Amino acid sequence: SGSAGAAVGGGDPVPGGMEITRGNFKSALGTVYEAVEDADFLAIDGEFSGISDGPSVSALTNGFDTPEERYQKLRKHSMDFLLFQFGLCTFKYDHTASKYNMKSFNFYIFPKPLNRTSPDVKFVCQSSSIDFLANQGFDFNKVFRNGIPYLNQEEERQLREQYDEKRCQANGLGGLDVAKPPSAVPEDQKEFIKKVVERIEDLLQDEGNTTVQLEPCTGFQRKLIYQALSWKYPKGIHVETVETEQKERYMIISKMDEEERKRREQEKRAREQEELRDAVGFSRVIHALANSGKLVVGHNMLLDVMHTIHQFYCSLPEDFREFKELATCVFPRLLDTKLMASTQPFKVGHLHFLIAPVKVVLSGGKLMK
What we know:
The chain is α/β, with parallel strands linked by helices. It contains 14 helices and nine strands.
C-alpha cells in the first residue's frame, strides 16, 4: 500500500511527490485539479487503520470467494476502519519524449469535527496494521494533528441545512410571524428576557454606541431572545451568535440600517460558504476524480474503492448489484492491475516480475511479446 506512487510493499512517497495536509490543502487544491484534468489516466491507493475486525486477513480474502461474497465480507468486517492516507498519481503521455510524466500526491486525512454539531466520527484500529505502518515510517501526527477533514454527501447536505436555518434565524429570525407575539416565555425566563429587552432599548437610545454584547447563555435562552427581538424589533437591529475558544456562545446585538444589514449578511454568507468548502475538504478531490471520467488504476483495489465511496460519498448498500451501479457512477472506468496480472500478456506469479515490463512501457520502450 502507501500512496499510489509508493514503492511496492513500502510507504515512502515517490521522490518529488507532494505531501498534502490540512495546512497546505487549500493552496495545493488548484495544482491537484489541474493535474487530474490534464492526465491521461490516474492511479490511487489507500492506507487504512486496519483491514478486518473479525476473520484473519487471509480468511477475509479467500481466493475462492465470488465477487459478491468478497464484497459482503469487506462491507461487514472492514468499513469501521479509517482510510487516513490517500495516494494519487496522475499520468500524462509526452509524445515528444515518448514517455509518461507522472505527478504524485499524498493526502493525510482525518475527520476533525468543524463544530459541535458536526459528525464526531468513531473508528477502530488494528494493531497489526498500525505496527506495519509504524515500521514503514508512517507519520501518524500528520494524520491526527494535520489531517484534511471531509464530509460525505449526506453530511454536507445536513450542514447546508444548518447554515440555512441559522440564516433564517438571523434574518427573519426563524421564519417567525412578526405580526403576532412570540410563544409564551416560561415563567422562570421572563426576568431574563426583560433584562435583554431593556439593554436593547438602552442601545437604541445611545447615539454613541452601536453594539451590545450579551452574557453567554443556553441555546434555549438564545431561541427566546430571537423570538422576542424578531417581534419587538423586526427592523433596525442585527443579531449574531458568536462562539468563544472555550466553546461558550453569546450574542452580539447591533443597530444598523437596511443597507448595512444586507452588507453584513453577504459577508456572513461568504464566510459560511468558505467554512462549508473547508468542511467538505478532501471529498472535493474525490469529486474531481469522479467528474473527470478518467481511467482510475489500482492494485487489488476493491477495498480502496469501497472505503473511498463509504467515507466520501455515502454508506455502502447491502446489495452487491447496487454497489456495482454506485461504483460505476463514481468511477466509470476502473482497472485493477492484480486482475490484469492474471491475464495475458502480463500473466505472472509474482508482482516483482510484472514491474519490469511495465517500467519498459512507462519509459517509452516497447513491451516484448
